C-alpha cells in the first residue's frame, strides 16, 4: 500500500469519525448580522456565491486578523479566481494521470502524474453515499482546526490573514516524524459556493515574503503562471524568520465537493513544491 493511499484512508476515517460524532451549526445568519467591514464581493457572480455554512462562524473567530489594504484584497480575489479555473481544469482533466491505488470499500481512486519537469501532482476521487453529510463535509474542510489533510505526520494550520470571510491566508506547519525538521508554507485559501450542490475549496501560494533569513530558494509556481507577480508580505514568527523551518510552496491544492443524485462526489488535487511525501 503506497503512502498517498494510506493518507487518503486516514483522511476518510477522520471524515467518518467527525461526521458521526460532532454536530456543526449550519444555519444561515440573518442579513443584518453580516460584518459591515466586508466591502469586497468579487466572488459574487452568476457562478459564485457566499457559502451557506460555517464561513461566518470562522470569520468571527479570526476577524481581528482582517486586512484592510484594498489593493491587496482585490489582487488576492483576482489571484484566487485564476486558481479556481486552474483547479477545475486540472482536477477534472484525465490526461497524463496514472492510477496508483483503489479501494472499493471506501470508493477511492488515487492518481499521480508529473508535468513541466519536476512538478508533481496527486489526485484522489471518492464517493460518500449520504447526501445529508454535504454541509458537514464542507464545514470540516474549511475549518483550519480540523485534521482533514493528506499528511501522515503532525500538521497544524492557522489563519494568518483575513481578506473576506471566504478569503484568507493560511499558515501550515507539518512534521512527518518527531525527529524530522518541521516544514511550513503560507498560501491563500478561498471557498467558492458554485451552487447549492457544489462547493470548491482552492489554495495556492503567491510571491509571499515571510522574511525567512535562510531561505535562498526561489519558488516558481509552475501551474498558476502569474503567481509571482502578486507579492505579499507576512509578519512571520521568529522560528520562521531565523530559518529553523523548511519552506514549502503550494502550486495549487483544493477540493471539489459536489452533491449528485444519490451521493456526494469529492475530488482532491494537490501540487506542493518542497515536499516529498506524496509521490512514491
List the helices and strands and how they pair.
Blueprint: H1 3-21, H2 55-62, H3 70-92, E1 98-103, E2 108-115, E3 119-128, H4 134-142, E4 154-164, E5 167-175, E6 183-195, E7 198-204, E8 207-209, E9 231-233, H5 238-241, E10 246-247, E11 249-259, E12 264-273
Parallel strand pairs: 6-10, 8-9
Antiparallel strand pairs: 1-2, 2-3, 3-12, 4-5, 5-6, 6-7, 7-11, 11-12
Structural notes for this entry:
InterPro entries: PYST_A. Keywords: Signal. It comes from Plasmodium yoelii. This protein has about 280 residues and is α+β, with helices and mostly antiparallel strands. It has a single domain, classed as Alpha-D-Glucose-1,6-Bisphosphate, Chain A, domain 4, CATH 3.30.530.20. Helix content is about 20%, strand content about 35%. It is built from 5 helices and 12 strands. It has helices at about 5-20, 55-60, 70-90, 135-140, 240, and strands at about 100-105, 110-115, 120-130, 155-165, 165-175, 185-195, 200-205, 205-210, 230-235, 245, 250-260, 265-275. The strands form 2 sheets. Strands 1, 2, 3, 4, 5, 6, 7, 10, 11 and 12 form a 10-stranded mixed beta sheet that branches. Strands 8-9 form a two-stranded parallel ribbon. Mean pLDDT is about 80; it is low at about 1-5, about 10-50 and about 275-280.
Shape: globular
Main beta sheet: 10 strands, mixed
Which segments are poorly predicted (pLDDT under 50) over 5 or more consecutive residues?
Answer: 1-6, 12-51, 276-280
CATH class categorisation: Alpha Beta
Count of distinct strands: 12
According to CATH, the fold-level topology is Alpha-D-Glucose-1,6-Bisphosphate, Chain A, domain 4
Radius of gyration: 18 Å
Number of spatially distinct domains? 1
Structural class: alpha+beta
Pattern of helices and strands: HHHEEEHEEEEEEHEEE
Beta-strand content bin: 25-35%
Q: Helicity level, as a percent range?
A: 10-25%
Q: What is the subunit organization of this protein?
A: single chain
**How far is the N terminus from the C terminus?**
11 Å
CATH architecture classification name = 2-Layer Sandwich
CATH homologous superfamily caption: START domain
What would the average pLDDT be, to the nearest integer?
80
Specify the number of helices: 5
Signal peptide: 1-25
Protein name: Fam-a protein
InterPro entries: PYST_A
Keywords: Signal
